[in-house]
Every structure is written in C-alpha cells, then in structure tokens.
Design a protein that fits this description.
By secondary structure, the chain is an alpha/beta fold. It contains 9 helices and 17 strands. The chain has an 8-stranded mixed sheet with strand order 1-2-4-3-5-6-7-8, sandwiched between helices.
Length: about 400
Amino acid sequence: MKKATTSLALLTALFMNHPFTAISAEEPSQIPLWPKGAPYAKGDSKTDQPFVDVYLPNEKMRNGAAVVVCPGGGYGGLALDHEGNQIAQFYNSFGVTAFVLHYRLGTHGYHFPTQLADVQRAIRFARSQSTQYHIDPKRIGVMGFSAGGHLSSMAATKFDEKTYDASDPIDQVSARPDFAVLCYPVISMNSEFTHKGSRKNLLGEDKANDAKAADHVSSDLNVTAQTPPTFLFHTNEDTAVPPENSIRFYLGLRQHKVPAELHLYQKGPHGVGLQTGDPILGTWGGHLKDWLRTNGFLAPAGSPKRVAASGKVSLNGTPVNWGSITFTPDDPNLPFTSTVVRGGKFQATPANGPTAAPSRVSFEASIWDTTRNPEDRVIHTDRLSQNDAQPLSIHIAADMQPLQFDLIAKPQ
C-alpha cells in the first residue's frame, strides 16, 4: 500500500520571551505573572502577586500541548494537591505541559475582575512562552475544578473582556484557550444551583446579592460560538455544586454548536479530583485523555492529517450487517477513529476519518441479521483470521483505494 507523501507544515509564531528558565516537573518553577507587580495588588506577598507553577513533562514525551490548571476552593482557598499538583503530574504523564495557577482570592480581599485578570494573564503567559517551553501556541487549554472550574469557564467565555491595562508585550497575545476542561464546576451565579460561598468570595459582600453582577459572571449565559471545545465532568451526588451547573453550560455549548463532551457519574461527592482509586469514577481521567487525543489536541504541529476512507467488511464470506472498524495510530498522540459498518460497507470523511499514519485496525462485527444463526454472535477482533499471529496493521494514506477486509472466525 502506498504511503502518504504529504504532511502539515509546521505552525510558527513569534512571541516576546519572559526572562525565566524552566526546570523539571520534579521541581516545578514558580513564575510570577507580573514580575513588576500585578494590577489590583494590595501588597507584595504570594497572596497578592499571582504566579504559576510550571510542570514540564519528560522531554522525550513532550507533545507540545499545554494547559493552565485552576484549583478549586470556593474562591477562598486553593486545593493545590488533588486539584493542582496531581493534575499537573497526570498531564505530564502523557506529554502535556501544565501551568498550575495561584490566582488571588476573595478571602484576601480580591474580587471580580481580579481572578479573570489572573487567568487571562496565565494563558497569555503560556502562549507567549511557546518557544521557551516548547509548546504549540494553538494547543493551550484551561482546566478548573469547582470554583476553579468557574474561573476556567470565564476564561473560555470572557477571553476578550478587558480586565486590566496592558503593561508589556505579553498582554498583546490572545487570552482565548484552545480547549476547556471543567470539573464539577460552579457555572451559574444567579440561580438556586449556585455555590453561595463562591459567589460571595468572587463578587464581594457588597455585590453578593446583586442580580446584574451575578448574571455577568454566570457562564451559562456567556457561551458563544467562539467558546472553545469543552470537556465536562460532574457527579449526580454532588450537593455542594449541583450537576445542573455543568448541564447548563453543556446546553449552551450545544446551542452554539461548540464541540463538547459531558460525563455525569451517578456516584461521587463534590471535590473528588482524579479519584484514581475508584474503579468507576476514576475512569473520567481516561475519558479526558481520549477526548484530547480524538480532537487532535495532543498531536504535534505538522502531524499527519485525517483523510477520507471507505471500503467493505465481510465475516465468514457474508457482508457485516452491523459493526464498526477502528483505526488506532501507532503514535499515541494522533487521533484514532471508529466508523460504523452497515450493510458490509463503511465510509468516513476527512473530518472524521483515520489519520494518515501507520495504524492498527480492529473490528466489531455481526452477520446474525442475515444468517439468523444462533451461533453467529458479535465478534471483536484485531486480526483478519484467528490463525494470524499478529494484529492487523496498515499505513493509512490520503490516496488509498477503497479497502476490503474479509474476516474469518469460527462460531463461538
């Protein structure tokens, strides 16, 4: 099979560099967002001057993606372990650079728009340092938990809102995140589903009951077609921040045709973090990683494109009535794709087709609707025949002819 010969050109951008040196993920660097002093600052302590902890993945694993992480804490504290440090290490494990944001808090006298200014500056900083940290300025996201999820949702919907006066070239860089990840987020500030403590700390005592101020920071009311693709995770048992918050934001995304994925688990309290010890709830991190990969956020600039693909699949000589074909690139950063098989045929467009790269092929297939034979059960296989020693692997190419897969399997 002929290999693809075309590839994406590397994206390039020029940004002013900050005079700092990055260090390893084992010892995250603490970088002040405004080295000469932050706007709205009441002093010079760490609670007055926002900064980011920079976590760098292993150089050999680095794929160029990056994320600004906003820990929760009701705008009154920062859950820096399970919603900061652990999350950064999780991202580092599959090659993503993480910037954990220490934003200013209502309990220290800082109220809106200070927090939005902090996250806007953090995103601008990460993007301006694309050369310094070897990241792609077009693959920088924002992620937050609880109140940090609210802050991230504001970053995704209010990235053009001016919150402070520009002070250096970094402030000329876009503050729009390329994707957003919202985990049990506070979203609505004007309904019975809000988290009252977060609203009070964000808006301050004098505006805590101001309906207009609450509407302005209710992110479900601020979604537009420019809001970036978003992944949401919540639990049905969350009584501190009810799941209606995520549902409202998700519906706003659907209304504006923004790509989105919502995972709503039945069990689990508020503030669970990754919860890797729970065999069910702990799966959400894997779903997030799959979502990032499927949407191309892990693919380095210049990676192969997705291409159109079509063909036929038969099982024991009979066209597959119902099933799927899945192409999984050998490169773990490239998107995989799964396409339905109906009537023995499959077809995928360049928008959702396989990546033009060496890939493993697997199948789900049934011919029962044709044979009505009780022995014809659904099969799952990654090889054409049970006698094949190795899984099926092909090199997807942009100019390949329709594919033909003839599966042979004994009745189970």
